[in-house]
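Worked example 3 (structure in, sequence out).
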């Protein structure tokens, strides 16, 4: 009986060890700078690690992927099937057309364009000095692949790579 109890205890502890082996403490997941930015006390880190460890131990070992469902063109997908991802991230969003608030004499990295719709876009890449300053020009911010955006003042001018501030 004692041998059976020890065997059962050994098996149970090996399952617990396996669950704990998968867990990586927060201190090992983040750099020192990231930990400082988060600003958790040692006691808070202990509680967070305990909660994460328990959640991981309670989670099933593997989630089988659902079988793909074929749908005919134009037919809606069943409710339990997620929509397919866009082929080119960012292209599903349309361009933004607006007027710049103020004048535009050119741009370089760091230049911020404030639009009349309230958006602000900052130049990441690209530089241009215009021959003539434009007063409140109509512009277009065009989506590119993988979340990139490009600001176009005129079709004949090079675009500036931008990102949205607000």
């Amino acid at each position: 009986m004692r041998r059976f109890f020890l065997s059962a205890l050994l098996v149970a502890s090996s399952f617990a060890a396996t669950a704990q082996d998968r867990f990586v403490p927060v201190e090992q997941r983040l750099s020192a700078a990231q930990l400082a930015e988060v600003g958790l006390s040692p006691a808070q880190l202990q509680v967070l690690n305990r909660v994460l460890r328990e959640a991981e131990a309670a989670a099933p070992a593997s989630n089988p992927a659902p079988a793909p469902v074929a749908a005919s063109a134009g037919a809606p997908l069943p409710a339990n099937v997620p929509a397919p991802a866009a082929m080119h991230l960012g292209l599903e969003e349309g361009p933004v057309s607006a007027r710049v608030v103020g004048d535009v004499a050119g741009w370089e990295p760091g230049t911020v364009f404030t639009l009349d719709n309230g958006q602000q876009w900052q130049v990441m890449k690209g530089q241009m000095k215009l021959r003539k300053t434009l007063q409140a020009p109509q512009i277009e911010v065009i989506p590119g692949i993988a979340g990139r955006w490009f600001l176009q003042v005129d079709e004949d001018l090079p675009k500036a790579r931008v990102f949205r501030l607000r």
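Notes: Residues 1-11, 64-74, 86-90 have pLDDT under 50 and may be disordered. The beta strands are 96-99, 103-107, 112-114, 120-125, 128-135, 138-143, 149-152, 160-164.
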